[in-house]
Amino acid sequence: MIRPPKGPDKRDPLRGKVSPSPAAPVEQAGEARLPKPPQVPQARFLQNLQFSQRQVPFMLRTRRALGDVFQMRGFGSEPGTVVVNHPDHIRSLFTADPQQVATFAGAQLEHVVGPNSILTSIGPRHMQQRRLLLPHFHGEAIEMYNQVGIGATEREIDSWPVSHSFPLVPRLQAITLEVIFAGIFGVWGTPAPGSAEDQLRVALERMVSASTHPFAQLYGLFNRRRGKPSRLTRMALSVVDRPIYALIQERRRADDLTNRRDILSLLLQTQVEQVGLMTDREVRDELLSLLLAGHETTANSLAWTWERLLRNPSVYDRLRDSARACSSNPWIEAIIMEGMRCRPVIPIIGRRVQVPWRLGPYGVPSSTSILISIVLLHHREDLYPLPFDFRPERWLEGRPGTYEWIPFGGGVRRCIGAALAMTEQRIVLETMARRLDLETEDHAPEHTRHRNVTMIPSRGAQAVVRFRYRSS
Ligand code: HEM
After folding, report:
1. Mean pLDDT of the chain
2. For residue 22, is the peptide bond before it cis, meaning its omega torsion is within 30 degrees of 0?
3. Which in 99, 250, 259, 353 has the greatest CB count within 10 A?
């Protein structure tokens, strides 16, 4: 649960402005003259435990105590990661020359998706991957995803129980997985039972759900500094890898490879500069990254929005009315944006400065790791008055500032699936609002739970279908 601190209940306006704060690369001598950011007071073990298990209250509490910029306790003699959330500091990191600001994906992510993925590659190789993949998530491609999304949502909804409480997350994941499968493999609808696509689907669902288990969380916490993937990680990955490699082999042999427009076929024909065609391992790394990045995030973002809607009946009523009137309505988009503001599925993103940097009144040396806290930015009271309220009307008057609403990150690492995710969320939200009367039996907000890099609703966004209308 994200609890508001006690304070006066001010009313509108719902959008505000931040006071400017200096942030930019500085000379080493200039950095040395600036004070260091204040440090988190807890012992390292306690800090890490709170950060991994109860990140949101930990972050909110620490900002209240230490201000906009603070430093976590590091490992051994290593300096700790610095946390920022001021839009000017974020702008300086997102717009910097990539030579001056690198990303850090973390060893755990690299163990899963490998070193060749768009998520973990750097420099020219990373830019080449973005140029290759971006068109598959924009423009004309979105229309194909639209069609798949509508069909998948209608079919899913028909299979949901009536009058029984169930978690929305796995059901929404089935929809988003079908959509991303269509883009990646060119497979429409549910794959044939026993096919490699079907085996991959089942393996992915199991892998994602197993990683929520408390054991997996603790295992991850204590193994995150390992240089190599653990035996357990390798065993879990082999179940997913088997059908992926089978699909790669099958597609390499396909007669119509050159005519196909799916991402797998594209990757198999791509020449990597000065190297030649991509190897099976390189293609596997890219496919697994897109599959993982492309379905769990969108499903959980939708689940959070429903978690909020079911606890804010007047917002939900207005959504139902507009969806059933079939009017194209800015209200739907406003709801999605507000859901992503107050429950960003990825709560933090990492960068590493390669030169000394100024962050407000503080200076940090070259090689400092920086966490941009999306949760803290999205709950700034100066920017979003009543930050803990779910108020979609915030967005009716205008778009957010580039560095003020960043659920998709920013700069050269900005999410390549952002346009697809927004379209998918609109389709699913609209179809569900049109065809279902949903309720929740438990009115207490769901807690946040952390799974891999995502923040998900602790009970999977429980809902009850009270009534289901026929598809029109
Ligand atoms: C609501 C849904 C989604 C959210 C909230 C989300 C969020 C994010 C965030 C925060 C990042 C990191 C950006 C940064 O470091 O600045 C990211 C990167 C990425 N996302 Fe998404 N994402 C979503 C959906 C998708 C979808 C549908 C795809 C499709 C495949 C996708 C593919 C990727 C990829 C490939 C990257 C890495 C980009 C790079 O490093 O160049 N995401 N996403």
Report:
1. 89
2. no
3. 353
Query: Which pLDDT belongs to residue 11?
Result: 46
Name residues whose C-beta falls within 8 Å of residue 382's C-beta, 6 or more positions apart in sequence.
Answer: 16, 17, 18, 19
Atom of ligand 1 nearest to the CA of 406: 10
What 3-state class would DSSP assign to 173? helix
The pLDDT, as a whole number, for residue 376 is 98
- Binding-site residues, ligand 1, Cβ < 6 A: 118-119, 130, 137, 289-290, 293-294, 297-298, 301, 345-346, 349, 407-410, 413-417, 420-421
Q: Is the dihedral of CA 198, 199, 200, 203 positive or negative?
A: positive
Q: Sign of the C-alpha dihedral, residues 54, 56, 62, 64?
A: negative
- Going from the C-alpha of 344 to that of each of 135, 299, 392, 416, 448, the distances in angstroms are 25, 12, 15, 17, 10
Ligand 1: residue of 178, 415, 455 to mutate (most ligand atoms within 8 A of CB) is 415
pLDDT tens readout for residues 424-467? 999 999 999 999 999 999 999 999 998 778 899 999 999 999 99
Q: Which structure tokens are listed for 45?
A: 């073990």
Is the distance from CB of 5 to CB of 74 less than 8 angstroms?
Answer: no
DSSP for 247-311, please give it. Answer: HHHHHHT-TTGGG--SHHHHHHTPEETTTEEPPHHHHHHHHHHHHHHHHHHHHHHHHHHHHHHTT
3-state percent breakdown (helix, strand, coil) of the chain, nearest 5: 50, 10, 40
The count of C-alpha atoms lying within 13 angstroms of the C-alpha of 423, restricted to the half-sphere facing its C-beta, is 21
Q: Which amino acid is at 303?
A: A
Mutate to test the pocket of ligand 1, among 266, 297, 352, 429 (most ligand atoms within 8 A of CB): 297
Burial of 123 (0-12, 13-18, 19+ CB in 10 A): exposed
**The ligand 1 atom nearest the CA atom of 126:** 41
* pLDDT tens-digit series, residues 341-350: 999 999 999 9
**CA nearest neighbour of 244 among 197, 184, 296:** 197
273 phi and psi, to 5 degrees? -50, 130
Is the distance from CB of 200 to CB of 244 less than 8 angstroms? yes
Rounded CA Rg of the chain: 22
**Residue located nearest, by CA, to atom 2 of ligand 1:** 298
Q: Report the DSSP pairing between strands 276-277 and 271-272.
A: antiparallel
Question: Strand, coil or helix: what is 355?
Answer: coil
Domains, the chain, ordered by start: 41-68+116-330+386-468 (1.10.630.10)
Take residue 299 and report the two structure tokens written for it: 């499903």
